[in-house]
């Protein structure tokens, strides 16, 4: 049985947000408000691939869809917190920033970091999602049945 802890839920949310962020955006938000702390690499950024699995109809049996390029890294702050990151594509700098933010979110700076980096990033991504949905909605065709008038 899978062990899921409710205390990991916020971390899953910010890790997901960091992984989906546009290229360079996390660094731009972070550098505007914070100084980068010293850290030690546990695993320097490296590029590899991972298998992507899917389910037919989102409910069927899982199958291997294909491989995806990812960049991963892990670091530790001088205070001992460990940060991890997996980013889609070949983006070493973005993986480093995501791991750094992950580690800092486990410190007393978490609230300030949420206000200056994560919340603006989430708002930008939600606005982009809404814009994309509005464009898709504009092309929607509604089909309906009319009486033919032959009666």
Describe the fold and architecture.
The protein is an alpha+beta fold and 151 residues long. It has a domain at 9-113. The chain is 42% helix and 26% strand. The protein has four helices and three strands; from the N terminus they run ααβββαα. It has a three-stranded antiparallel beta sheet. α2 (25-33) packs across α3 (92-104). The radius of gyration is 21 Å and the shape is extended. The protein starts with 8 loop residues before the first helix and ends in a 13-residue tail after the last helix.
How many whole angstroms does the radius of gyration measure?
21 Å
Secondary-structure element pattern, one letter each: HHEEEHH
How many strand units? 3
Major sheet size, sense and barrel closure? 3 strands, antiparallel
Total of DSSP H or I helical runs spanning 4+ residues: 4
Instruction: Report helical residue fraction.
Output: 40-55%
Are there runs of 5+ residues with pLDDT below 50, and where?
none
Mean pLDDT across every amino acid position: 89
* Strands in their spatial order, largest beta sheet: 1-2-3
Overall geometry comes to extended
Give the DSSP E fraction (strand runs of 2 or more residues): 25-35%
For the termini, the CA-CA separation is 62 Å
Which terms would index this structure?
alpha+beta, 151 residues, single chain, three-stranded antiparallel sheet, 26% strand, 4 helices
């Amino acid at each position: 049985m899978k062990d899921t802890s409710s205390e990991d839920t916020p971390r899953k949310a910010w890790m997901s947000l960091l992984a989906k962020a546009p290229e360079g955006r996390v660094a731009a938000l972070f550098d505007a408000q914070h100084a980068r702390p010293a850290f030690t690499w546990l695993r320097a950024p490296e590029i590899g691939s991972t298998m992507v699995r899917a389910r037919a109809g989102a409910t069927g049996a899982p199958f291997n869809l294909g491989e995806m390029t990812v960049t991963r890294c892990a670091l530790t702050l001088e205070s001992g917190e460990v940060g991890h990151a997996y980013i889609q594509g070949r983006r070493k700098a973005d993986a480093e920033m995501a791991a750094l933010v992950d580690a800092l979110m486990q410190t007393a700076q978490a609230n300030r970091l949420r206000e200056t980096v994560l919340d603006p990033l989430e708002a930008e991504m939600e606005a982009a999602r809404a814009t994309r949905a509005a464009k898709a909605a504009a092309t929607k065709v509604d089909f309906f049945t009319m009486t033919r008038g032959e009666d």
